[in-house]
Amino acid sequence: MSAVTFEGQIPQPPQSPLRRVSAWFFRHPTLALLALLAVPMAWMVVVYLGSLSALLAQSFFRLDGFTGRIIREFGLSTYEQLFTAANIDIVVRTTVMAAAVTVAGALIAFPLAYYTARFAPPRLKTFLYLAVLLPLWSSYLVRVYTWKIILAQEGIITWVFEALGLRGVLDGILAIPGIGGSSLSFSYLGMFLVFVYIWLPYMVLPIMTALERVPNSLVEASSDLGARPRYTFRRIILPLAFPGVVAGSIFTFSLTLGDYIIPQVIGNSSFFIGQVVYAQQGTAGNIPLAAAFTVVPVVIMLSYLLLARRLGAFDAL
């Protein structure tokens, strides 16, 4: 049966099933939005939050010290073990290291990001971007073990100090309690250097992004109104770049809190939170205590995020 067309009416081509589905979603935008978010939301809720919930539930169980079996009865006896002196030392040691790495990363990253975003010519900017990103394209373990060689007793840094006749200075630094050790590769100072190196790109990139979003018109207006460059930097550029610093600090702080490879490769025998989780769930088989320890970084990060939100760090995001 042939289609009947009136005079002056343009015949419409037959619609494919895909086009009809697209038109239906166009007429129902709410359902289209739900369809788009269904897969990522399912991933977030089922896989991510589901695994975290299962881990949290494990932390309320306890290990039978005699049989080594997990007693699946809800209680707080596992959390009581967190408040022993040895475990508190581990939490404090990890938190202090994470805070020191974050502060040092921000101090190193900000000048580099500021120059790259505001003053570097295009070719140099591209080179600096690549220089920041290049370490991320190599293996994490390769970079850590490379630093193990650099920091070793026979490594490059010790050789440079000896060549400059400053070996006594290095030995004096390594003799300082709390940061030193038998060599840089077995000291908190060496661990700190490796942490800063590994996580520095995660601090540089958010600050670069924040600085590039600062409108030039604001800087020019401040200059036209007679403000000195230092005043413009302090009152305009720095507040607008502060959310980038906060975003970078979230990366560096949380990654340092949870890392267990660097303390295992570079550090001495002192435990960090990540190492305890690894040892308890692997060697010791105490999954409830490992789960309870994983809650500690989560609580610390939630407290940090609430503090940052209270200070208005997320207002410009």
Explain what you see:
This protein is mostly helical and 317 residues long. It has helices spanning 17-27, 29-59, 77-82, 85-118, 122-133, 140-151, 156-163, 167-174, 188-212, 216-224, 229-258, 261-265, 273-281, 287-310, and strands at residues 62-63, 70-71. The protein is built from 14 helices and two strands. A two-stranded antiparallel sheet has the order 1-2. The longest helix is centred in the N-terminal third of the chain and has 34 residues, at 85-118. The model has no long low-confidence stretch (mean pLDDT 87).
Q: What's the number of helices?
A: 14
Rg, Cα atoms, Å: 27 Å
> Can you tell me the overall shape?
globular
Structural class designation:
mainly alpha
Largest sheet: 2 strands, antiparallel
* Mean pLDDT reading: 87
Helix content: over 70%
Number of strands: 2
Question: DSSP strand (E) fraction?
Answer: under 5%
**Topology order in helix (H) and strand (E) letters:** HHEEHHHHHHHHHHHH
Low-confidence stretches: none
N-to-C terminal Cα separation, in Å? 61 Å
Strands of the largest sheet, in order across it?
A: 1-2
